[in-house]
Amino acid sequence: SGRPVEAHLGLWHGLNWPLLMSGLVVALGLFVYLNLDAAKRLVETVSLRRYHLNWLYDTFVEGLPRWSDRLTLSYMTGYLRDYLAFILIWFVLSVGYALGAKEGLKLFGFDLAPLAPYEVVAGCLMVAAALAVAVLPRRLPAVLALGAVGYLVALFFIIMRAPDLALTQLFIETVSLILYLLVFVHLPELKKEVIGWGQKAVNLVVAAASGLVVTLLLLSGNATRLFAPISRYYVETSHSLGGGNNIVNVILVDFRGYDTMGEITVVSVAAFAVYALAKLRLGKDRGKAAKE
């Protein structure tokens, strides 16, 4: 009732709800006792029907697997697009909630360089190529459009004076593009599935919401400064401590020397593996030629 209750003992508390409820129970019990035969027939009649607690319990236990199967089949559709939509919807809800929480979203305090006109043009071309991947009807043009996105990323690395990243991006993008083309050439022509406007609308909303959340996440992360960026330390000490004028080279060789050594080790191990496989194949071919 929202206020303290004072409890006290007494032989008579007056007419109140507990007394009325007790009297009702006594009266009901007396009525059942006086009409015991009729009460027994009523209980037997209800037990033969389906409206009793045992029936409710059995129905729930037996129906639980069927309801579980229906629920599972409602989202386990067998289509990758549906599973991807579920993942992205959860990403939008969880990350969007975190960004919308108290002091979670920060869209001010950017430390960004000014955009040149050619950078704006390159960005618009990247957006156009990404949209082309989704709307082109055939696989080969879509793969080429996807490669265009990667090459435009390399162009941005060149604009930002990161030749090592640009070279890596160009190499990876070229190899990936060639592999995609080799694989898609040998794939059978798939039957195009007709998607209704409802599914298209859901895909559009999920894609737009995912892109918006990722954009806000990146902007908020860029505007959040918990401590001074380490890039200032590199600018101030690359020449005095590393003895080089190229900051990128000094970072890779001196400040991140062990990381670079690890990367070179991985590449070297892969190269030895390729050499061993090639030599093994050449040995088999020579043995076959000798037998012939």
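(ticket continues) Second input and output from the same batch:
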Amino acid sequence: MERLLGLLALRTAELLNASDIARTLGLHRVTIDNYIAVLERLFLVRRLPAWHNNPGHRLIRSPKIHLVDSGLAATLADYSATDWFEQRERMGHLLESFVVRQIVAQAEWTDPDLRFWHYRDKDGLEVDLVITRGKKTWGVEVKASSAVHRKDGRGLEHLARQCGKNFQGGFLLYDGTDVLPLATSNVFAVPFSKLWEL
């Protein structure tokens, strides 16, 4: 269990591939599934199911796995403060897990009817967090960068097209200071600090 939790810390905010984890740890796939279920019940990890506009397809797509406590994930992965600059991609995964947890925690006491997903299509376009209430849909993307480029909003644009009139809006959280409009209406680049003003 300890080795599994350490490996999940290294793979936080990635698609869950239980078969690969089982091979890596030399365990049976069923054992990995059972251990992850235990870790979920202990609120150490969260599986984020895949969103698709066809509900039947949601059942066959891979979930993402997030360690609930990004500080614990950083410790288990042996990251230090300097890794923010030297291992930016890995720290971006920790940041994504942190944001997912913050939004889910706020929703639990403001709107318990919200459901949470991730989105990724066959071309690799993705949205880190999809929030739904019935058919109404919002998207959240996380970027560990102080600059925003048009391509950073492509996943949100694609989600908006998939949802049509059900798309309510979205935001791309980034390490900047300004709220900036992106190409799709109702989609903005927003500083991380705004998370606690929502």
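Agent notes: The longest helix spans residues 88-110. The CA atoms of residues 191 and 197 lie 11 Å apart. Closing as not reproducible unless the customer responds.
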